[in-house]
Amino acid sequence: MTGSPATAARPFSVLFVCTGNICRSALGAQILSARLTADGVTARGRPIAVSSAGTGVGQGLEMPPEVVAQSIRFGGSPEGHVPTALDRDLVAGVDLILTATRDHRSVVARLLPRASRITFTIPQFARLTADAPEVTDPWELVAAVAAQRGSVMPPERPEDDDIDDPYRRSESTYARVGEQIHGLVEVIASRLVQAGDRA
After folding, report:
1. 7: confidence class by pLDDT, cuts 50, 70, 90
2. pLDDT tens-digit readout, 78-115
3. CATH number of 68's domain
4. What is the mean pLDDT of residues 162-178?
5. Which residues does 157 contact at the CB level (< 8 Å), separation at least 6?
6. Between the N and C ends of the chain, which has fewer C-beta atoms within 10 Å?
7. Of 55, 31, 164, residue with least CA distance to 105
8. End-to-end CA distance of the chain, in Å?
C-alpha cells in the first residue's frame, strides 16, 4: 500500500468501497476503469488497477439491473461482477481508496489505521483535486490531495461528502446517483489522466 513511484513493484491501484459492493462502489470502479482504459492511461508504464469491495457483502447479492443499466450508460462493463468483501489485506494492497460515505471511510481506517491518509470519500477526493498542484504520477496526486485536507474548507453540509445508497429505491434515485458518481469519477479520472502516462 502507498507505494512510491520509485519503489512500487506493482501497478498503481484504486479501490472503491461501499456497503454491498453491488451499487455505488461497483459503478464507480466500472466507470473509472472504462475511462482509463479508453484513454490508455498507465502509471510508470503499468495499467492502473481498479477494483471494488463492500463492508457488508452478503450471500447471493448481485448488481441490481438499474445499476447495470447505469454502468452501461456511462461506458462501464458490469458483466461478471462478483461482490467482494472488504478486508485488511485488500486495504493494505492499494494506493487510493474511494468510499461512498464517511462511515465507509471510518471502516477502512479501523481495519488499517495507516490507510487513513490514502482514503477519501468519492466526493471529497473529487473536491480536493481542484486545489491540488500539478504532479508527475498518481502516487504524487494522492499525496498532494491528502495535503489539501487541512487547508481546504470542508463542505458546509458534511453529508455532501457522502453518496446516497440507491439500493431498492426508485429508478429515478438510481439515475440520480449514477449521474452523481459519473460526474465525480470524471473529475478524478481527468486528474489521473494528467498525472499518468498515455499509451
Report:
1. very low
2. 999 999 999 999 999 999 999 999 999 999 999 999 99
3. 3.40.50.2300
4. 96
5. none
6. C
7. 55
8. 25
Residue written as cell 447471493?
Answer: 60
Q: Which three cell numbers stand for residue 15?
A: 479501490
pLDDT score recorded for residue 2 = 47
What is the domain extent for residue 103?
Answer: 13-198
- The tens digit of pLDDT for each residue in 16-28 reads 999 999 999 999 9
| Residue 48 one-letter amino acid | I
Number of domains in the chain: 1
The three-state (H, E, C) secondary structure of the chain, written as one string: CCCCCCCCCCCCEEEEEECCCCCHHHHHHHHHHHHHHHHCEEECCEECEEEEEECCCCCCCCCCHHHHHHHHHCCCCCCCCCCCECCHHHHHCCCEEEECCHHHHHHHHHHCHHHHHHEEEHHHHHHHHCCCCCCCCHHHHHHHHHHHCCCCCCCCCHHHHCCCCCCCCCHHHHHHHHHHHHHHHHHHHHHHHHHCEEC
| 71 occurs within a structural domain | yes
Residue 18: left if φ>0, alpha if ψ -120 to 50, beta else—which one?
A: beta
**What's the one-letter identity of residue 14?**
V
